[in-house]
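Recap from last week: sequence in, structure out.
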Amino acid sequence: MKNLDSERIIYRNVQPGTFVRITIGVVGIVLLALSIVSNPYIYICLGVLVICFLLFHSLSTEVTESSIRIRMGIGVIHRTIPIARVRSCVTARTPWYIGWGIRLIPGRCWLWNVSGFDSVELEYQDGGHFRIGTDTPRELAEAIDEAIALQNHDDPVEAGPSCSIEGCGSGPVPLTSSVRGPSADP
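Predicted structure tokens:
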């Protein structure tokens, strides 16, 4: 097994949680103003807001030769997905009513998202799904393609893409018209 720190990084992105930052900032200013003229226990609420900000202010995604690593905020909440577990990926568009954060999309999959509506949905070898919010869905999906090719073949150029960008997605949550699935070529 390779040391995670010595692996080549194929993709790295930090997506700021703009909505989370603005919301926490506005609520924090209101609470700070109320604490001056009102109950000093509001400082406890301010402390909780600071903790929420630290935990959810951004989403970092990193694709290496063997894994996809995602981290919320400062990294206390994180997840590592082995590339060997991923069968395919789909660029997706998450509807506004699903929201942001870490949540279960009913009847579909888990979603980690801090801003925007674009995401990449992974399909696992066992049939499960997982969505990663991103502001660069095409680049993330291409990096996952490259990592899958490296897992399956010694020469990724010879292997070709493991996913294609044709067709359209389906499921209870509307997806974009870009689908990335196993190639039909032998």
